[in-house]
Design brief:
alpha+beta; 3 strands; three-stranded antiparallel beta sheet
């Protein structure tokens, strides 16, 4: 049976931590920033760890050998 390909969009959006958790960028930073407070914008910097339920779906469907 041939090897499965990893989805190319997944490669760009997610990374795995050393413990196997899925790391992703923060949401809510693309547009309509004028209505957000400075505190909200500041807290959206960087990355975060995905919830276990969502991470399991990403790993199973989009990263077959992760």
């Amino acid at each position: 049976m041939p090897k499965l390909k990893t989805k190319s969009g997944t490669k760009k959006r997610f990374k795995l931590t050393a413990s196997g958790k899925v790391k992703r960028g923060q949401t809510g930073k693309r547009h309509m920033m004028i209505k957000r407070t400075n505190k909200q914008i500041r807290n959206k910097r960087g990355t975060t760890i995905m919830a276990d339920v969502d991470a399991a779906r990403v790993l199973k469907n989009f990263m077959p050998y992760a």
